[in-house]
Amino acid sequence: MSETQTFSHKIFVQKRNLISIPRDIRDSLNINEGDVLDISLVDNKIIIEPMKLVPSSQAYFWADRTQRDLLDAKEDIKSGNTREFKTVKEFLDGIEQ
């Protein structure tokens, strides 16, 4: 798991209500020109979160269930809880078990 980092900066609202995100924060979150940011108001605080857009054909991969299944599979492999199949028929028969 990644280490939690805390940054604090005082910034000024510029003309046309623009703000600049300080370089160390941009670098830490890999925020670049053209990236999408989600901005929300929570308990009188502004929360800005980087968003990564995913093509709809790949969205299933990032679904919570798929991510949980991948983590479970990784644990199975790590613990040796795997089977080897020599033929497709043997594999398909193994799925039914």
Automatic annotation (TrEMBL):
Superkingdom, taxonomy of origin: Bacteria
GO-annotated molecular function: DNA binding
Classification via SUPFAM superfamilies: AbrB/MazE/MraZ-like (SSF89447)
Ranges for domain SpoVT-AbrB: 11-56
Protein name: SpoVT-AbrB domain-containing protein
Species of origin: Pelotomaculum propionicicum
